């Protein structure tokens, strides 16, 4: 038996109120079962929404971990190490690093027992860290697919076309900047102003070092001079802005849409401001803009092989030093960690103006 602890919830609510640390034991793996140890699992905004009960995918509440009430384990992505395998396991062995094929399996746990079929083995893990593997399947995959699947690549002229995005300092935003740089797409990036001008400047500089072409604050974007600035950097529109990535909504999203050239796409993938997306009718009538949404969970379930290939591509960029780590706030989870303290870290995820993404490491 392996002793294990998991952050579970049996009703929806705020993470600090409903998450409990549940201790249980895991038996030796049978058949195609695999026993795993946590390496690193991030706290993503969607994980909190899921616990609040406001996210469309809801993991089933079960008693399989021996909880008094039927419960679900929090977290949707992470890197794990194989510690033992059942006799029927074909493609995994002790010491392999794996990630989960689908979301919703619960990753905030020190150990897990899953079926081989639920796991993706990381080939050639040398040169990669648990953090890189534990955060590859949601944010970078989202950025990658939104850029590849909503741009007309036949039309694109490398180095002369743009994309614009808000939430540019998020995990997805940083991935989009770096993929844009790799693929010859200039990026106009919008972030929220920080407390001091120095901090704002430092954030702009940080994103430029990742490859951002231009970084502006939301406040700058919402002033009258933004239009002229866009004209100037895009050489009076000769370098068209073909794609907008929106994870904020509200006025911010409207301002992004207004910069797009005719027939371009705006892909909405988040709603951090909780404000609806409002669109001037002219953008639809005269510019023929297309407004799409993207949800990586559904996309991944429909395209499992393409998802694996996308992950492999990103990991290859990481190995060759062309894709930098996101800033993180490491939360070390050990045997002494208490439930309320771990839950408090989850609670902070939607706080805003954070220095890094919270990541559990074990
Ligand atoms: P991170 O945790 O890395 O970053 C959060 C981002 O949200 C920061 O840029 C932060 O900016 C911004 N933010 C927080 N609160 C607000 C607010 N009130 N108004 C405007 N911006 C705000 O996020 P992720 O990269 O993991 O996720 C970013 C977004 O993308 C989320 O909305 C998430 O749900 C969504 N997402 C969607 C996916 C999909 O498939 N549709 C997949 C992955 C993510 P600041 O630093 O200024 O606070």
Automatic annotation (TrEMBL):
GO terms for cellular component: mitochondrion. SMART domains: PKS_ER. It is found in: Mitochondrion. The keyword Oxidoreductase applies. Keywords: Fatty acid biosynthesis, Fatty acid metabolism, Lipid biosynthesis, Lipid metabolism, Mitochondrion, NADP, Oxidoreductase, Transit peptide. CDD domains: ETR. Its main location: mitochondrion. It comes from the Eukaryota. InterPro entries: ADH-like_C, ADH-like_N, ER, GroES-like_sf, Mito_Enoyl-ACP_Reductase, NAD(P)-bd_dom_sf. One of its GO terms (molecular function) is enoyl-[acyl-carrier-protein] reductase (NADPH) activity. Pfam families: ADH_N, ADH_zinc_N. It is an enzyme of class 1 (oxidoreductase). Residues 16-360 form the Enoyl reductase (ER) domain. SUPFAM superfamilies: GroES-like, NAD(P)-binding Rossmann-fold domains. Coiled coil: none annotated. The keyword Lipid metabolism applies. GO terms for biological process: fatty acid biosynthetic process. Its EC number is 1.3.1.104. It catalyses: a 2,3-saturated acyl-[ACP] + NADP(+) = a (2E)-enoyl-[ACP] + NADPH + H(+). PANTHER family: ENOYL-[ACYL-CARRIER-PROTEIN] REDUCTASE, MITOCHONDRIAL (PTHR43981). Belongs to the zinc-containing alcohol dehydrogenase family. Quinone oxidoreductase subfamily. This is enoyl-[acyl-carrier-protein] reductase.
